Amino acid sequence: MAEVIVLESPAAAGAFVAAHIAAEVRARPEFTLGVATGSTPLPVYEGLRAQAAAGTDFARITAFALDEYVGLPAGHPESYRAVVDREVTVPLGLDPARVNVPDGALDGIETAGDRYEAALAAHGGVDLQLLGIGTTGHIGFNEPGSSFGSLTRVKTLTERTREDNARFFDSIDQVPIHCVTQGLGTILRARHLVLLAFGEGKAEALAAAVEGPVSASMPGSAIQLHPRVTVVVDPAAASRL
Ligand code: GLP
């Protein structure tokens, strides 16, 4: 089973993961961080800001985001490019040229997945991938039924995920229907997976991912195939383990 660390709060979990990332960044000439969006990783980014304030230099790291919505206007505040810029790139002083997000523009969307895979391969992959988990069990935007071998590609969001994410938009009608997401196969290539989950609403999906059968109907269960996984949760999210 994955290593599971239960900490008293999201803030404590974020500080813990951020301290680990900062130590790795200080110890190596190069470090590649896989960033996730949604509300779950925000305490980690807060922790990283504290590490930056305490002197860790993040300017040399490279970042790859998990996913992006398709078809949002350039600069839309809820595009994952904008979220990553706001939460990670700017406050941590990353070099924008080293921050990669899948291209969700409609123009050229048919090659967006291949282009992202090529960028990942040319760079040499991800050292540590942050992951949240959706209530459907999705990681990235790999909804139930996604192949464990899948690579970055366009997918359709489930109605449940669009409802979950409607809080970031004025109404559900504005939530895009499609996304470009790293595949489960892409995610499994990262050298270390750190899955975070907070709150009772995630307890069921978390238990299924960590302890349930490995199945394409529970995309999060793909983490069980990876040799180095750390699961960092609060007591509510751990309540079904
Ligand atoms: C989002 C993201 C995922 C995220 C998940 C959970 O839609 N694409 O990367 O892990 O759904 O979101 P949250 O962290 O807001 O609960």
Automatic annotation (TrEMBL):
It comes from Demequina lignilytica. GO terms for molecular function: glucosamine-6-phosphate deaminase activity; identical protein binding. Residues 12-225 form the Glucosamine/galactosamine-6-phosphate isomerase domain. Transmembrane segments: none annotated. Keywords: Carbohydrate metabolism, Hydrolase. GO terms for cellular component: cytoplasm. It comes from the Bacteria. GO terms for biological process: carbohydrate metabolic process; glucosamine catabolic process; N-acetylglucosamine catabolic process; N-acetylneuraminate catabolic process. This is Glucosamine-6-phosphate deaminase. SUPFAM superfamilies: NagB/RpiA/CoA transferase-like. InterPro entries: Glc/Gal-6P_isomerase, Glucosamine6P_isomerase, NagB/RpiA_transferase-like.
